[in-house]
Design brief:
It is a single chain. The chain is built from 14 helices and 11 strands. It is globular.
């Protein structure tokens, strides 16, 4: 009887030790891999090729982001605009005027959370005659973007500086770049990354004026029109933001970190820009990034900058921002 009892106690002891070991292993696994117990929020984000997408490459390459991101790269703002209105994406980077158009077209169902790109427009010259904005007096400037932001920005700067210049428009950036390289035009207004592409191919062409600097100079002299030359921004569907406030705020934090990475690590960022299809060439991306004014401006600073900018575009052509100035609910501030 004693032997039988000892046998039973031995089996019980072994089972207890086995159970304790198993529990210990489960506990260690959970501690070592806390992410196994954390469910990440799926977030679909659309970025554009070119400057408005460059700031995202650090986030796109991250392996430990707080959300479960699905990234989409597009070359057409209209496609991204349609997806945002239809609910195909949660967050998108868009030209600032297009963001306002989406707001008006979608019955105010989107909000803007940050400016991600300031001015990318530059005056290029084959020669050395243009040293200041005043030197454009009497000149012929070839440009693209007729009926859109580049035309209104150029006209605003010329008018405020009392410059009388003739502006001739071409349909495509690539067409104007080719004409400049061929010597068919001497002065051209182009955006990045087309500016860099031209400069890399012909060292007799120079960057004469940065319209962002010219814009800021005007604003500094007239506080009543305080604004920034905000060319790109981050927008989101209000429904997504309301249903996922923590996930959205985490996105903004991680996107801001990505912008800081791009600006502080240009060479590494340029390689990622090519890798993710934002631009076609590492060399061009590395030269273009410093000229693209990649930023993260949020909250009241963003709101004030955009409201002033939208007022100027509205005065030039109400249709350029969707026919009406955005209301207060358009601006996501905290």
């Amino acid at each position: 009887m004693k032997n039988k009892l000892k046998h039973i106690l031995s089996i019980f002891l072994l089972l207890t030790l086995f159970t304790m070991a198993a529990c210990s292993n489960d506990s260690n696994t959970t501690a070592e891999n806390p992410s196994n117990t954390v469910k990440k929020t799926p977030v679909s984000v659309a970025f554009l090729k070119g400057p408005t997408g460059i700031g995202a490459v650090g986030l796109m390459d991250s392996i430990d982001s707080s959300n479960d991101y699905i990234f989409e790269i597009s070359s057409a703002p209209d496609e991204v605009m349609a997806e945002l209105i239809q609910g195909g994406v949660d967050i998108a980077a868009l030209p600032t005027n297009v963001a306002s158009v989406v707001y008006n077209k979608s019955e105010q169902e989107v909000c803007v959370a940050a400016i991600n790109t300031l001015g990318v427009l530059h005056i290029l010259e084959r020669g050395d005659t243009i040293q200041s904005i005043a030197d454009l007096e009497g000149k012929t400037i070839y440009a693209t973007g007729q009926g859109s932001t580049p035309e209104y920005v150029l006209n605003y700067i010329l008018q405020k500086n009392n410059i009388n210049a003739k502006v001739e428009f071409m349909a495509e950036h690539s067409e104007l770049a080719a004409a400049l390289l061929a010597g068919e035009v001497d002065i051209a207004l182009l955006p990045e990354p087309n500016v860099t592409a031209v400069l890399l191919k012909d060292d007799t062409i120079r960057q004469a004026l940065d319209l962002t600097q010219e814009w800021d100079t005007l604003q500094a002299s007239n506080s009543l029109e305080a604004s920034r030359l905000a060319m790109g921004c981050i927008v989101a569907r209000k429904e997504f933001v309301q249903n996922n406030p923590e996930a959205f705020d985490n996105f903004l934090k991680e996107y801001q970190q990505s912008v800081e990475f791009v600006n502080n690590n240009v060479s590494k960022a340029a390689a990622l820009v090519e890798q993710y299809g934002i631009m076609d060439s590492v060399a061009a991306a590395e030269k273009a990034i410093p000229n693209c004014n990649i930023v993260f401006i949020a909250n009241e600073e963003m709101k004030n900058a955009l409201q002033g900018f939208y007022n100027i575009l509205f005065e030039a052509n109400p249709k350029s921002i969707g026919g009406a100035l955005p209301n207060e609910d358009f601006y996501y501030t905290k």
